[in-house]
Design brief:
CATH superfamily of the largest domain: Single-stranded right-handed beta-helix, Pectin lyase-like
Low-confidence stretches: none
Structural class: mainly beta
CATH class of the largest domain: Mainly Beta
Number of strands: 43
Helix content: under 10%
Strand content: over 45%
Shape: globular
Number of domains: 3
Oligomer: single chain
């Protein structure tokens, strides 16, 4: 069986039903109204260049029977070149493209023919579609002065109410405008097999990053938006995070490829922050930092808005070379709840699940209801890392308050980790450890369940640090490490190639082994 995940006026995204991570059991062919249109081997596939408002029938030798779907209607289809865009990669097309966007009627689609469109930041509006087909590229300007500075917040001149706009790593501070930018908008769709290129190397955004006083631009930034859909696009080489929805709702990232060099700084692929209902399905990542980092702000943002990252689904994704495949935090002062990660492949990332939190994130920094299942990991240094001692990205990160192993008072600054389930996983060629889960003595991790998991270690493993904390020693081929956990359930877990004890535990309230 297949499931229809999404349709626009000219594209559709589908998913095969099975329990396999990312790849289907062999190649398959897709026929559209009897004509061959697609061959692939992944669980998620997409069709483009369809007609608006039309019903189609899919058949396949791998499909019992047929599957019928319909594309959405649209009010108009507009060619960006009719507004003067050249698309030669040399001419500045910013004014032409922005004018076309401004003029689009509600429900219209802006089409980019093949070519390279050199642009500075573009501001999107509600109820439009950008169609960037294969062969078309939006190329970010290398002139850094073209990226305006957005204030972190401003005050209403009449009633004194605060309004929030810019953000950098969980704080309301100024930032450079993203290449693709929308605030307080809804119903925005970006589709196609084309490329949106941040052009960061040419602009020098990755040089001396700690000396840059204003937050680097993201590739796409959506602040307080609703119903955002990005389908099929190859996003690459952002100055910092590639996709950054912020306090937004109903967001889809479907069948995308997001890339940046392995050594590029802060080039996370997708960082949903304080969002509700985000689906990341069928995507492939190869970036210089975390593949997906789910966030909800630092303590001032968390206390003020009390908005968790909630109802996120990550499924049928391939994640390569990032620091973490799926990271929670460290800016998670508003909490992270109801996260499901299913049928994914993590390949040569430093960690699989990576939780980063610490004292000071606050009492609203609750992570709970996290499930990982049907996951394949290949060459991941440490598959499961839950670290409540994270020592990065804050002025007091090296303070005794953060690193002290004494049980400190539970107060408004103390974070909480709830229930976590890991099941039906194969983790091959691990290096540092199978698991590293380290709670606070005053606030242990509530419950961890690991079941039906096989961990094998690379015979060529090199020592490395599984987590970022003060005084962290290097591990090599260690088993499952748990400290400060109230309830630990281990069922049908196999470890091969461990040096030393398979299970290393301390300060465990209840241990259940089956």
């Amino acid at each position: 069986m297949i499931k229809l995940l999404f349709t626009s006026s000219t594209s559709a995204c589908f998913e095969w039903h099975n329990d396999l991570p990312y790849y289907k059991d062999g190649e398959y062919d897709i026929y559209l109204d009897g004509k061959p249109v697609y061959r692939g081997n992944t669980n998620v596939f997409s069709l483009f260049d369809l007609a608006p408002g039309k019903t189609y029938t899919i058949t396949s030798p791998s499909l019992d029977g047929s599957f019928e779907f319909a594309t959405k209607s649209e009010s108009a289809a507009i060619n960006v070149r009719d507004f003067g865009a050249v698309g030669d990669g040399i001419t500045d097309d910013t004014v032409a493209v922005q004018t076309a966007i401004n003029c689009l009627p509600r429900g219209a689609r802006l089409y980019f023919p093949k070519g390279t469109y050199l642009v500075a930041p573009l501001c999107l509006k509600s109820h439009i579609t950008l169609d960037i087909p294969e062969g078309a590229r939006l190329l970010g300007s290398a002139d850094r002065s073209r990226y305006p500075v957005i204030p972190g917040w401003t005050v209403d001149m009449v009633n004194g109410e605060e309004h929030f706009f810019g953000v950098w790593e969980g704080n309301a501070v100024p930032m450079h405008q993203a290449l693709i930018f929308a605030e307080y908008a809804e119903d925005i769709t970006i589709i196609g097999k084309g490329i949106i290129d941040g052009n960061a190397p040419k602009a020098g955004w990755w040089i001396n990053v700690k000396e840059q006083k204003v937050g680097r631009p993201r590739l796409m930034f959506f602040n307080r938006c609703e119903s955002i859909h990005v389908h099929g696009i190859h996003a690459c080489d952002a100055a910092s995070w590639q996709m950054h929805p912020y306090f937004s709702k109903e967001v889809d990232f479907l069948d995308m490829f997001i890339s940046a060099p392995k050594d590029s700084p802060n080039t996370d692929a997708i960082d949903p922050e304080a969002c509700d209902r985000v689906d990341i399905i069928g995507c492939r990542f190869s970036v210089g930092d975390d593949c997906i980092a789910i966030k909800s702000g630092k303590i001032e943002i968390g206390k003020k808005f009390k908005t968790p990252a909630n109802r996120h689904t990550i499924r049928n994704c391939l994640m390569e070379f990032g620091h973490g495949a799926v990271t929670l935090g460290s800016e998670m002062a508003g909490g992270v709840t109801n996260l499901t990660v299913n049928r994914c492949v993590f390949r040569q990332t430093d960690r699989g699940l990576r939780i980063k939190t610490r004292r000071g994130r606050g009492k609203d920094a609750v992570i709970d209801g996290v499930v990982f299942e049907n996951i394949k990991m290949e060459g991941v240094l440490t598959p499961i890392v839950m670290n409540m001692w994270y020592n990065c990205c804050d002025p007091d990160r090296n303070s005794e308050y953060v690193w002290s192993r004494k049980a400190l008072p539970v107060d408004d600054r103390t974070p909480y980790l709830g229930a976590f389930t890991f099941r039906n996983m194969i983790c091959e060629d691990c290096e540092a450890a199978a698991c590293y889960c380290d709670g606070l003595p005053e606030q242990p991790i509530e419950e961890i369940t690991v079941e039906n998991i096989i961990f094998t270690f690379s015979p060529y493993a090199k020592p490395s640090r599984p987590a970022m904390r003060e005084f962290m020693e290097e591990f090599c081929r260690k088993g499952m490490y748990f400290d400060n956990v109230r309830k630990l359930v281990i069922n049908n877990v196999i470890l091969k190639g461990v040096i030393g004890d398979e299970l290393i535990i301390d300060h465990i309230g209840e241990l259940i082994r089956k």
